[in-house]
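Moderator note: this is an archived Q&A kept for reference. The question asked for a predicted structure of one protein chain; the sequence and the answer are reproduced below.
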Amino acid sequence: MGINFHLTGKTAVITGGTGVLCSVMARELARKGVRVAILGHSGDKAQVLADEIEKDGGRAIACNVDVLNLESLKKARQYVVDKYGTIDILINGAGGNKKEATTSEELSFFDIDIDALKRVFDLNIMGTVLTTQVFGELFAKTGKGCVVNISSMAAYHPLTRTIAYSGAKAALSNFTQWLAVHFNQNYSTDIRVNAVAPGFILTNQNRFLLTDENGNPTERGRKVLDKTPMGRYGKPEEIAGAVLWLCSDAASFVNGAIIPVDGGFSAYWGV
């Protein structure tokens, strides 16, 4: 039979679908023949992306959703099923960091607002859990499906300053492993749950930490580049490549894995 990287005809739901990473994933999945459902907190942005994908010859729909609201998620699930009939892939991309939940010269650990901390944990871990409860229920009923979560290098070792984000992503990696076992032992061995752990990519969430107002590396940005053996930031397409592999049958025996896509960052201790 050979190794099957094909994804044509599958349906993928992507939360956080208008973000830097997930919008690229949506486009690349559509180019591989996947029917894409883009779920975002801004329905307008999701619709613009869906329209662009359709214009390029892909199939895409958009849906406004709150990943912290079960009723909102259930309505989105029904909408996708009504449009496409089935769901094969769930990519939990909703998440991110907040400046107000990150220590700095202006904001000490003792002054961080508890609501900002909770918001980061809610977006990254609770949003993933709730979304997987809703969409993963379909996988449990059909006995097949693929879940891909978005972890981080911060899950391996906590990064200085990012107290909430590091903790939330560590919880996400742990949940990924737990859920892989839970689905296999209780529902089907044909359900897989994995995660990618991106290295450093410049996004709106971390730009304030890594570059100054002129676009030059901050001291922290220079440290990141020095500790990345490939000596550069990653590209969203490079994360998407790993996700497409995990979604395909080529990764049929990959389960409960956290795949680093980091230019060697996690392999290098700086000496």
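Archived answer notes: The helical segments are 20-31, 43-55, 70-84, 114-142, 163-186, 207-210, 219-227, 236-247.
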